[in-house]
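User: If only I could read backbone structure tokens as easily as an amino acid sequence. Underneath my words sits a plain record pairing an amino acid chain with its backbone structure tokens. This is the protein in question:
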Amino acid sequence: MEKSLKMGMLRSIGNVYEKSKGSKLTDSYLNEVSNDLKCISSYFKTTQFQSFFVASVFALNYKGDTVDMEDIIGHTECNPMRLLEFSDELDDLYKRGILHKQRSRHRVDIHLANIQYTINKNITEAILSNQPLPETKPEAFESLIEIFEMIYKLGEQLENNEITMGEFQMKAEGILQQGKIFPFVAKVKSLNIPIKETLIYFLLIWRTLTGKESVDMETLFAMVFSSASIQIRYIQNFLNKSNILVDLNLVEIEESTFFNDAQIKLTEYSKDLLKENGIQLYFNSAKQKGIICPNEISVKSLYFNPKEGEQLDMLSSLLNDIKLKEIQQRLNHKSLPRGVTVLLYGPSGTGKTETVFQIARKTGRQIMKVDISQSKSMWFGESEKIIKRVFTDYKTLLKESEIAPILLFNEADAIISKRKDVATSNVAQTENAIQNIILEELEQFEGIFIATTNLVNNMDTAFERRFLFKVNIQNPDTATKARIWKSKMPDLTEANCQTLAKMFSFSGGQIDNIVRKCSMQEVISAVPTTFEQLVEFCRSETLSEKCGNRIGFL
């Protein structure tokens, strides 16, 4: 009996579809397939026309297509007005959940002409499994993210003049009404936010989800308001903090030097609301926060003097996640700070920053990289806010990461130097305030903090205690320089590598520069670089007259 259900339904659907080709949906065609339509109707509890339409969509879907009115008209060669006679019956199929529909952006925007249909997949599975018609419900949103995306697509249609403002608001309100099954949407609707502000909020969320931590206000408002004067008025309201989204702590403003460069972004409160609904925003903005993922770091061999190499190997072993967690548990048991703070200091070009990158790659840790020069704002008082925000963002990242990330303060000379007399200038007062913030944060730091500097002799004594590990990375000795030369230029003989190492007191970074010059020279001249040319490149690397000791063949 079960087998006959499946075979009977498939046969009837096939007959209705096959015989409808070129039928013009005449009464004679409907009479010819009446028994098949009755079979379909008995299963779906549908009218004669509804059974025809279900059979057509079912068959065409299995050809790999969605179905719109043009497909039915083309297949049956019927008058389009014939189909419109049954528009209410089509809507009923959708309301019952037998058919799902989606809007086509490539059709004229009139009723039914721009709709594409698919059969409910639960129904097809039931028929193929010889099961009775399953309980069907109107198509619902599968996720909260889908709601944000649909509203954003409506915003794009409005911006492209494909729909009017009234249609945008009406359709968006329909989406929000249907989306009340999600607590986040229900929460927003309970706040009684005007529809335009609600749309701005949801558009901002979608832009944040797709990788924009903050969005230019002018760009965002252009999606909602066609009038430039209205856009300007809304920007003014936001900047004056006289908007309900600001009042409710849902969005915040990043002010800029110029009026039209102001940025708008979600507050931590909004992020927490979304997180409670299973949506994680932070990692979408990783690029905006200078976060480098370990899989983005290229493998690079580094060479250090023996003592420094031992210290760095020990640090790398410490940051192995299993060992670090074990150590932190022990420190916590002894009521000691759990954080790991490291200072890498020494001359420029010795590989301090690259060392941090390679340790991060090896231990699978993200790096939140802060270039200190960028934290000095032209506005007095802003630098302190920026530094505080850095630590706030790091704490958020730490909380949401399975493996603790590294907070890297690169070239931190300016902020760990000796504090200045505040009476000298406002700049000195700001720099001291920044230092106090960092010292306070490091006192109870929970994660991994690494700073690099070239000028350790000028470091404020208050920072010495804050750094648990201090590694002095000096220029390589002769043996290490020879290893670097050999690794960079494998065709050099061991004797040549030793000669270069003895002649020139270069850092690894300077050797890299020379290797690059050789590569360029070989492309230009199309012949390998000779040892004599290599030596000349070495001599031109430093501005000092005493750039090397003349030995060997010279």
Remarks:
- The first strand starts at residue 99 and ends at 103.
- Residues 478-541 form one domain.
- Confidence is low (pLDDT under 50) at residues 283-288, 544-554.
- The chain has four domains: 2-128, 144-285, 294-472, 478-541.
